[in-house]
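Catalogue entry: protein
Contents: sequence, C-alpha cells
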Amino acid sequence: MDRIAIVGIDCRFPGAPDPGAYWDLLMRSGDGIGTVPEQRWAAKEFHSATQAEGRSNTTQGGFIDDPDAFDNEFFTISPREAAAMDPQQRLLLQCAWRAVEDAGLPPQRLAGTATGVFVGIMGNEWAQLHLTDYDHVTAQAGSGNGYCMTANRISYHLDLKGPSLAVDTACSSSLVAVHLAGNALLSGECDYAIAAGVNVALTPALSIFYTQAGLSAPDGRCKPFSAQADGIGRGEGVGAVVLRRLEDALADGQQIYAVVRGTAVNQDGRSNGLTAPNRWAQQDVIAAAYRRAGVEPADVAFTEGHGTGTALGDMMEAAALGHHHAGRSAKPMALGSVKGNLGHTEGAAGIAGLIKVALSLHHRTVPASRFSAKENAQLGLRQKGLRLLKAPLRLPRGTSVAGLSSFGMGGTNAHAVLESAPPQSARPRPEPAGDTTGIGTGVFTLSAPAPDALRRNLLAQSEALAARRAPLGPVAWTSNRVKAGHRYRFAVSAGDTDALVERLRAAAADPDLLARLTGAPGARPRTAFLFTGQGSQYPRMTAGLYQDSPLYRRFLDEADAALLPHTGESVRDLLLGGDESVHRTRWAQPALFAVGYALGRTLGELGVRPDLLLGHSVGEYAAACLAGVFPLEDAARLIAARGALMQRLPDGGGMLAVLAGREELEERLETEPHVGVAVVNGPRATVLSGELAALRRIDKELDRDGIRTRTLRVSHAFHSYLMDPMLEEFAEIAREVGGGTPRLPLFSTLYGRVLDDEPMDADYWVAHVRRPVLFADAAAALLAAGPTHAVEIGPSPVLSSMTRKLQQAAPGARPAFVLPVRGEDSAGRDLADALAELYRGGVTPDWDAVYEERDRTAYRLPPYVFSDAHRYWTRGGPVRARHDAPLAELPRSAARESAPAAEREPAGTGVLTLERPAPGDPVTEAALEAIGQVGGYETDELSPYLRLYEDLGFDSVMVMELKGRIEERLPAVATLTVQDLLPRLASVGDLVDFLRDHCGTASAPVEERTA
C-alpha cells in the first residue's frame, strides 16, 4: 500500500477542547469522566444500582463542554437552521475547518476541488428527539438530521466536490472512514481527504442498553486490559484529520504528524453472536493490515487497542494480538487504550485512537495507559508478547511503527498501521538558482468575517506565540497562506516574534488601533505608481532597504549593471557610499532611475502590480521602463545620456518655486523672455526656470506683491531654453534607443493626460527635456481614473502631499497613499508596512517573495477560534446571545448595524445613510416578520443592506417557505411566483421595495446609519 500522510488534526474530547489539551490529558493520565450534565438528561431518574429494567447502573460518563455552542454566523447559517441541526453536524463543521487550517491550508483553497469527506458516526439521538415530534418537524429538520448530512454539510459549506459519505459500523465507524479515505486518495479519486468521527450522547438509551446487556461499568469508566475492568463507560467527542498522499505532502513541504502505512477492514461473519467479538476475525484483520503496510509484527513498537474494558472484549483482543506477537516475550509490544481517559466514544472511538497514535509518533512518546497499574492476569499478556504501558514510552530515533485497532459491535473490524513522519517532511522545495527573495521584515496577517472575531483570534494567536519561541519568518509566512479569505483583513509588520506578540496584544486591546490596522475592501483594488523626480535624491538613499532586502538588492544590482557601461562608475556604490555627488545631475538622474526601477520591480515581484503609472519629470523614465516602452538596457542608456549631457551644459541658470498659478505667472513673464514655466505642480504651485538675473528680478517683483517664493538648489535651469544646446546630441541617442507604446495606462507629465496609444519615442523624450512638467494636470487625470491606492516610488515622499492637495480641490477618487520608502532611515520595515497597508486595502501579495527561502516553511498556528456566544439545544427555542460591537471599532467601509436605534449617533459627515421605511409601513413589517420567522431572526436585526443568501443563510427551501409566510401576511402577493421573487432577493431592502411596489404602497423613508 502506498502511504498516506496525516497533515492536519483537530479534536474535542472530554476534558480536552483541542489537540494540545488532548495530548496534555494523555500525558498526565488525566480523567475526562464526570457526572452526566443536566443539559443531557436527568441521570438520577434513569439510575439503578441493581440494573433494574429501563435503567442504567451509572450516572457517569465522558462529556464534552459546550456542545450547544455554534458559530452559525461564521458559516452563514440562519439561527432557525442552526437550531434544527444535530449538534454532531455543528461540531464536525467547526472541527473540519480547524483541521484544514492545521494542515497549513486556508479552507477556501479547497473550494471546488475533489476533496473527499468521510465521517464515522454511530448515534443519531438528535433525530430521535426531534423527528418524532411530528407537529414540529420543519424543512430544516430534514437537513439538520441524518447520518449522510454530517459529511454532506462539510462538503457543502467548504464547497468540496469529492466523495462525501457517512459510515456507520458502530464502534469502528471512524477508523473505517479513515480506511475509505485512504483508498480514495490512493485510487486518485481525491487529492485531499477529511476523515472524521463524532459522537454526542443526548439520551440515556445506550447507557441503558449497555447496562441491560451486562456491559456497563458502574463508575462510567473503561479500564482497558486491567484487573479492575468491569465494563464500558460512555464517552463523546469529535475529531478530524486531513489526509494526503505522502509524496504530494512531501513535495509541497507540508508538516506531517504521522504516516498511515496500511489499513484493513473485515467482518466477523457468523460467530457466536451478532454483538460478540470474534478473535479469529480480529487477528485476520491485523494480519491484513500488516501485509498491506509491509511490516512484520516485530516492527510494531506499540498498539492502541480497542480496549473497551469488558471481560470478553479484552480477552478476544489480547488473543488476536497475541497470535502475532507471542514470540516477543523478551521485548513485548506496548499496549494501551485511550478509552481509559475518555470512555468509549463509540462512533468517534477510531478517530480518537488515530489522533492519539499520530500525536505519539509526532512527539516520539507514547502516553501511559490509565488503569494499567494492575494488569488482568487472566489475559496472559506477557505470554502473548504484550505489556500494558504503566509509564510513558520514549520512542527511539528513526522510524517507529504503531498499530491501531477498532472493532464494531456488529462485527466490522478495522486495523491501521502507522509510522513516524519521514525526516524530510516540512522542508521547502529547493529555490531556483537566482530566485532571490525577501524584504527583511515579516508581515503577519489574519482575516475574520467580523471585527469581534478578528479580536478574538488575535488574542488566541498572541497567547500561543507568547507561550513558545517561534521564528518570525515561518510564523508570518504561514499566517499569510492560512489565515486568509475573510472580509476583515488585519496586517502588521514585525522584526521578531516578541515584537509581533506585543503588536497583536495592543491591537486586540485598543479598538481604535485595531480599526486602523484592519481593512474591509469591497471592489477590486486599483493601484497607481507615482515615480518621484529630481530633487528627491540624497546620499545613501534606500541603503537601509538594500541591506535588509535581498529582493530589492537584486533589482538595484540589476539596474546598476545596466547603467555601468554608460556611467563608467557604479551608481549603486555611489549611493551606498554616501557620496554627495548624488546631487550632481550626471549622477542624480541615473541614481533616481535605478531606485525607481528597483522599487517598482520589487513591488511587482511582491504581487503589487500597477494599474496606472505617472512619473514626475525624470521619474517618467522608470515608469516607462516598467510599462514596457523600452527594455532596461535602453532605458539605462537614455537616462545616463540625459544626465551626462545636462551636466556638461554651462552654469548660469536657476529655478524658482512660486506659490501662484500658471496663468497669473505667464502674464508676468511676457516681459521676461529668458524665463519660462518649467513645472506645474498644482493650481497654485508653479516652478519657473531660466537665467539667474531674470529670476532675481521676478522674485523681487513677486515679493513686493506678497507672493511667496523659494529659490531651488539646482545646477541648471531644467525645462527651459537653456537645455537647447544638448537636444541634438540627445536626440541622436534617443533615436537609436527608440521607444514603444506603454502597455499600461501612463499619465504623461509632458501632455498632462494619459497617453492614448501614443509612442514614447525620440520626439517624445526630446520634448520631455525642454517642455514644462504638467504634473498637476496628469495627476488630476490619474485621480479621475479612480485609483484606490497611490504608491509613491522614490527615495522621499514628495508627490503624495502634492497629489493630496489636488484631490482636495477636485471631487473624485481619494486613494490611500502608500510609502514603501519614507526617507533617509527607511529600511525593510517601511516596505513591509506598505505591503501590509496594501493587503488591508484588498491587494493580494505574492507572499513567497516577502520571505527568504529559509523562512518559507510551515508553522502550525492555532486554528480559528469560533464564537461560543450562540447556543442551540433541545429544550425550548434557540438561546442566542446578542453581541454588539461598538461602531467605532469597525472599519467605516463595511460596518454593520450594531446598536439599537436610540443609541445611534445623529447623522454626520462621512456616515453612510440607508433608507428604511417608517415602522408603520405594513408591507415592510410583514416582510421583516416573514424573514425573521423563516430564518429565526429578531426583526430589529434585519437591515436593508443584509443579503438573504450571503448574510442570512437563506437557501431554496427557505425561499419557498418565505413566499408562503409573506402570502399569509400580504394576500396581494399571492399571484407572484417564486420565479418572480428570485431576482428580488439580493437583499432585504430589495425584497421590501419590490413588495411595496407590487402592493402599491409607499411611505416616507427615514434614515438608518451605518459607519
